[in-house]
Amino acid sequence: MIATCVGLSLTKPVAAAEPESCPGLIASRDTLFSRAALRQNEVGLTFVGHATFLIETPQGVRIATDYNDGTRPRVTPDVATMNKAHSTHFSYHPDPAIKYVLRGWNPAGDPVVHDLTVQDVRIRNVSTNIRSYGGATEYDGNSIFVFETAQLCIAHLGHLHHTLSPGHLKRLGRIDVLLVPVDGSYTLETFDMMEVLRAINAPLMIPMHFFGPSTLNRFLTSARDHFPVEFSDTAAITLSRATLPKSPKILVLPGH
């Protein structure tokens, strides 16, 4: 049941065709979803930890976001997405049973473009930039991955280091569920993250990438000036378009 941090300007122009508009709140569950448990219009979402979520589609496709060598779901996903900024967001040795490993950056330096359909889910990305360890800008080193299934668009911001340009927002299109890094330092400063959340304006926003209660509470203190905040008593929830909040809301899942 549901109970009651400085960003850098690293953006450069983004030009791409506008995607089709994405054609969901919440019934809590105590365990990872079984393939038979989801209805045709439902998506399972489990917060595994840090920046890793397990997404399950009605046809049973399993996706792990920011899959890495330390934080992994208990089941082998069909698809793993990764980002570059730190080793807690990618794996040197992904499980060979994973059918599709999608890296959010191109080692050659050019933007990476993913647009993959696996059964009932379309997976695409919008590239953003990151700071290198020396403070320089690495263009297109991060991807916002978008998962379109069951009439929902779920976006994972990855290791976002800057606010979004109109070009980024156009490429994202309509977002229903937004997975948000809220540490306020390693990614984007909280004030700038609020700008991103207001610009995307997703009905449901779920925090990730926080380091215990103090980091999370710092974010929530600022967020409450703009959005209502609720807490779930379980890390596993069911999403559907019909049950999305009528206005933007933050839902905190257990974990860190």
UniProtKB/TrEMBL annotation:
It comes from the Bacteria. InterPro entries: RibonucZ/Hydroxyglut_hydro. SUPFAM superfamilies: Metallo-hydrolase/oxidoreductase. It holds the Pfam family Lactamase_B_3. This is Zn-dependent hydrolase.
